[in-house]
């Protein structure tokens, strides 16, 4: 952990920024050069070495956000995840992955590990004991993701980190859903933190990027693998991401607040069967979330009454966009059955409690009254259709 004493908004706004020595402009200059001097320099810079001026500047901000010594920026969340995993795994190793992780990570494990001679197990649940049960003598990594997609299940971060430390195993967490604003897992003992920066860090649904944060020692290993896989991010997008992060803490706090209000509203609505949000006291992970998160996040899921058709409901929304991704400043909804979890068998979905009527809701920063009004009018229209049909 670094001894960065600055406040979160100050880190978001200023940490790592480059000085414009030529013109004294207020923001980091953008250096698009892919070729730099090699003689008489301390660092040989090249985009795929993750060390251009803008890449290094943003890495400093990223590391400060997650309380780590170092960070590396990647071209996508999956580039970050695959590089981090392959940096610490080799033939003969075993990795334990949490049940219900991001679909792309699941697919990476089941489609790639075997050909590298890496074996893997998924936990059968979310408890620390579920991780412990899968550990083998050759287990090198425990991989977790909390809150999870789409049911916002909460995993005990410190519990899993303590277990791993006892056994000398490395821990990695996908912290995308929480964002560093709501959760800093290194403070709970996690070794490596990963984000899809496409989500809350970008925050405007227009940047695809990823990041890995850890100690300098761990990041040196990630770098060694990273330069081979070549998943670095273009400097222009790095520069845009630096700009996006300046407002991350205020955006995410507004999204937290909207999600809490929306979860409360939906849980009181007679048209809604069930709401999944860690901020609600009846969520099974509420106490755990309270102990390890500083905010409950901007994501929730809910089930409409079975007599309200979800596809019709999506079509009637006027403000909220039915849309694949999440974490933008605009509110979006999707059906996990039709998108993120469509490749999973209906049986597996049922086992994990993902119903066809489940709707995942990514809260934006719009006024909560307008979001609620949109849902109310859409439900009213679907109901009137059902009556006349
Ligand atoms: C989107 C996402 C990813 C993958 O990120 P990309 O930028 O799409 O590669 C990984 N984990 C979580 C939790 C995500 O939401």
UniProtKB/TrEMBL annotation:
Supply the Pfam families for this chain: Cys_Met_Meta_PP
Q: Which Gene Ontology CC terms are recorded?
A: cytoplasm
What processes in GO biological process is this protein linked to?
Answer: methionine biosynthetic process; transsulfuration
Record Gene3D superfamilies = Aspartate Aminotransferase, domain 1, Type I PLP-dependent aspartate aminotransferase-like (Major domain)
Q: What cofactor is needed?
A: pyridoxal 5'-phosphate
Q: Which InterPro entries match?
A: Cys/Met-Metab_PyrdxlP-dep_enz (IPR000277), Cys_met_metab_PP (IPR054542), PyrdxlP-dep_Trfase (IPR015424), PyrdxlP-dep_Trfase_major (IPR015421), PyrdxlP-dep_Trfase_small (IPR015422)
- N6-(pyridoxal phosphate)lysine modification sites are 199
Give TM regions.
70-89
Q: What Gene Ontology terms describe what this protein does at the molecular function level?
A: carbon-sulfur lyase activity; pyridoxal phosphate binding
Q: Which SUPFAM superfamilies does this chain map to? A: PLP-dependent transferases (SSF53383)
Query: Which CDD domains does this one have?
Result: CGS_like
Tell whether Cytoplasm is among the UniProt keywords. no
Instruction: State the UniProt keywords alphabetically.
Output: Lyase, Membrane, Pyridoxal phosphate, Transmembrane, Transmembrane helix
Is Lipoprotein one of the keywords? no
Q: Which family does it belong to?
A: Belongs to the trans-sulfuration enzymes family.
The record's PANTHER family line, in alphabetical order, gives: CYSTATHIONINE GAMMA-LYASE (PTHR11808:SF80), TRANS-SULFURATION ENZYME FAMILY MEMBER (PTHR11808)
Protein name, entry field: Cystathionine beta-lyase
